[in-house]
Specification:
With 630 residues, the chain is α+β, with helices and mostly antiparallel strands. 35% of the residues lie in helices and 19% in strands. The chain folds into four domains: 302 residues, 3-Layer(bba) Sandwich (FAD/NAD(P)-binding domain); 144 residues, Elongation Factor Tu (Ef-tu), domain 3; 80 residues, Arc Repressor Mutant, subunit A (Orthogonal Bundle), CATH 1.10.10; 62 residues, DNA polymerase, domain 1 (Orthogonal Bundle), CATH 1.10.150. The strands form six sheets. Strands 1, 2, 6, 7, 8, 9 and 20 form a seven-stranded mixed sheet that branches. Bound molecules: flavin-adenine dinucleotide.
Length: 630
């Protein structure tokens, strides 16, 4: 029996595992990344894209913390698109169409060349736990890997089954090898697992699609990027981007699907797990939105080295012959060839309510979990959790306090708090609506919010941190300059600019630039041009957001600060609620079940009412339950 010893073992080389392993190794921990095969490190089993609403902001946050997804996504992007650019800055988000082969190849190279990181191929079948503490993992071939901490990121692989109609085959994504033993060993160690389901659409040979019958979905011009370390020459230019397209389902598509509903794995009773509410199958959409005459489908190229198109929105578990009929009813797809049929997958997941906000198990010391195995869905959600778990496993081994982001500080904070406070019964997806303070959690200010953490834990270099500090100083100078520079509205250029936007000359004296930029249509860039000046494009945009939304941002900040006071009251998972009189029955049950870390978390548990919180606060002052006021 072979035996190796590590500080941290990360099981899984998906989007969560990569970030966890790289963060741990870059912090200096002797780390192992265990994966079924090196070739599936960084695999995109579903859509070939990174980012989108809320998710794109998570990728920016990963960048501010020194993670890898943003760098790889930039360098392997086929198309960049800034979503909601006409809307407020709180909902703007970047999405890239990825070359899925180039993406995984780059991730593999990064992992294989990372100092302090050993990449090991093998299948974990048993989590070795003694005295409620994880000691390592045993592999299928009998190898034992020992470690001081383990991060579990097995995605959709544990006890996976692939389904097309009534055909049920054991396997992870694309029928890769799976095991039921690993989740059995988690249950043995005291963790609860449950079944979840997700699905993926068919891939079609691109050369067989008639794109003249579809509409073009272009990207956004300009230099867009997730990572602040990306240079313009590192990315594909707008002119060279590979386009996406859009088509729609037709009445004929709906007729075929509805006539065959009983053959779908979902509706024939084959599926036992709960599917993703926000990424439903096409048969689900037809059943749920009966009156909708058509559904839009995005056509996304998968890779420059593959002749395949991903039909986003057409996920199904109907039989292959029905998939053939359905797809030929789509405009542009009349003569298309399916390269890979759609299928659904069901797998074992862990209810994340069993985890602390550091993603350490409440029950098994030094065991961390992250990614789809925690009941989520999506690459970015997985990567954000992987960062959190990898950093916290390393910090814990260094004897340091965990890094936990507040809900007003990061979308990752919202995600972690939702998962560990409320748990989930269906694949959880991050949505902008889940964040109370969207205006504080913006694409443009991710570095401002988080880079100091990345720097402090050693994931952001001195050079990058200094560049950031310099940029902050430059921004302040630009805003100060606008505050002191007087723009005479009688000046012909300024008058013409303001009049062109529909603003009247409302003062006879000059108005300072800050006040002018507060007007909705005035842009720093254009205003400075009126007086023959310019500045860094990024800074001018940041200036626009800071000044135009100053009032709203301050209001959100004040509200967030009020809630923060609750977060500083630590209950701790050992708090004894039996010692507290007068809690409501439901409140007591939920508090005992979910074991919130803080009063803030307790306040977000449904069933814990304001009266329970008041009772708890008094009990703590009386020294009951052993909670701590900090
Ligand atoms: C069919 C399908 C449909 C999907 N549909 C959607 C969708 O519609 N929307 C969406 O957002 N997301 C979807 N996803 C999910 C998306 O793929 C995941 O969210 C994302 O990949 C999760 O990342 P992860 O790191 O948690 O796990 P994964 O990317 O799945 O990575 C898991 C890793 O663990 C390794 N591993 C597993 N078991 C073991 C073991 N026992 N020993 C050693 N290594 C192991 C694997 O080799 C792999 O490297 C879908 C996935 C599949 C398979």
């Amino acid at each position: 029996m072979k035996k190796s010893n590590f500080d941290i073992i990360v099981i899984g080389g998906g989007h969560a595992g990569i970030e966890a392993a790289l963060a741990s190794a870059r912090i200096g921990m002797h780390t192992a990344l265990l994966t079924l095969s090196i070739d599936n490190i960084g695999k995109m089993p579903c859509n070939p894209s990174v980012g989108g609403p809320a998710k794109g902001i998570v990728v920016r946050e990963i960048d501010a913390l020194g993670g890898q997804m943003p760098i790889t996504a930039d360098r392997t992007a086929l198309q960049f698109k800034m979503l909601n650019s006409a809307k407020g800055p709180g909902v703007r988000a970047l999405r890239v169409q990825s070359d899925k082969i180039a993406y995984k190849k780059m991730m593999q190279a990064v992992c294989l060349n990372q100092e302090h990181l050993a990449v090991i191929e093998g299948m974990a079948v048993h989590l070795d736990v003694t005295d409620d503490t994880v000691r390592g993992v045993t592999l299928k071939d009998g190898t034992v890997l020992t470690a001081r901490a383990v991060v579990l990121t097995t995605g959709t692989y544990m006890a996976g089954v692939n389904m097309i109609s009534a055909e049920v085959v054991k396997g992870g994504p694309d029928r890769e090898e799976t095991t039921e033993d690993l989740s059995a060993s988690l249950r043995e160690a005291g963790l609860q697992t449950f079944r979840l389901k997700t699905g993926t659409p068919p891939r079609v040979l691109t050369s067989t699609i008639d794109f003249t019958k579809t509409s073009l979905e272009p990207g956004t011009p300009g230099f867009l990027h997730f990572s602040e370390t990306t240079q313009e020459e590192d990315v594909r230019s707008f002119e060279n981007e590979i386009p996406c397209y859009m088509t729609y389902t037709t009445p004929a598509t709906h007729e075929i699907i509805l006539a065959n509903l009983n053959k779908s794995s979902m509706y024939s009773g084959v599926v036992k797990g709960v599917g993703p509410r926000y990424c439903p199958s096409i048969e689900d959409k037809l059943v749920r939105f009966k009156d909708k005459p058509r559904h839009q489908l995005f056509l996304e190229p998968e890779s420059l080295s593959m002749d395949t198109t991903y039909v986003q929105g057409f996920s199904t578990s109907l039989p292959r012959e029905i998939q053939e009929q359905m797809i030929h009813t789509l405009p542009g797809f009349e003569h298309c060839l399916i390269k890979k049929y759609a299928y659904a997958i069901e797998y074992d997941a862990i209810d994340p309510i069993q985890m602390k906000p550091s993603f350490e198990s409440k029950r098994i010391h030094n065991l961390y979990t992250a990614g789809q195995v925690n009941g989520t869905s999506g690459y970015e959600e997985a990567a954000g959790q992987g960062m959190t778990a990898g950093i916290n496993a390393a910090l814990s081994l260094q004897g340091k306090a965990p890094l936990i982001f507040a809900r007003d500080e990061a979308y990752i904070g919202v995600l972690v708090d939702d998962l560990t406070t409320k748990g989930t019964l269906e694949p959880y997806r991050l949505l902008t609506s889940r964040a109370e303070f969207r205006l504080l959690l913006r694409h443009d200010n991710a570095e401002q919010r988080l880079i100091h953490y990345g720097h402090e834990i050693g994931l952001i270099s001195e050079a990058r941190y200094s560049r950031f500090m310099k940029k902050q100083e430059d921004l302040k100078q630009l805003e100060d300059h606008l505050g002191t520079a007087v723009f005479e509205q009688d000046d012909p250029k300024i008058h013409a600019y303001l009049a062109g936007l529909g603003y009247k000359n409302d003062t006879h004296t000059g108005v300072n630039g800050r006040e002018l930029v507060r007007r909705p249509k005035v842009l720093t860039k254009d205003l400075l041009a009126c007086i023959g000046e310019t500045a860094d494009a990024d800074l001018m945009e940041r200036c626009d957001i800071d000044l135009k939304y100053e009032g709203y941002i301050s209001k959100a900040r004040r509200e967030a600060d009020k809630l923060k006071a609750m977060e500083s009251i630590i209950l701790g998972t050992e708090f004894n609620y039996e010692e507290v009189d007068n809690l409501s029955i439901e409140g007591r049950q939920k508090l005992m079940k979910y074991k919130p870390e803080t009063m803030g978390q307790a306040s977000r548990i449904s069933g814990v009412n304001p009266a329970d919180l008041a009772v708890l606060a008094i009990a703590m002052k009386q020294g009951k339950g052993r909670g701590v006021h900090s």
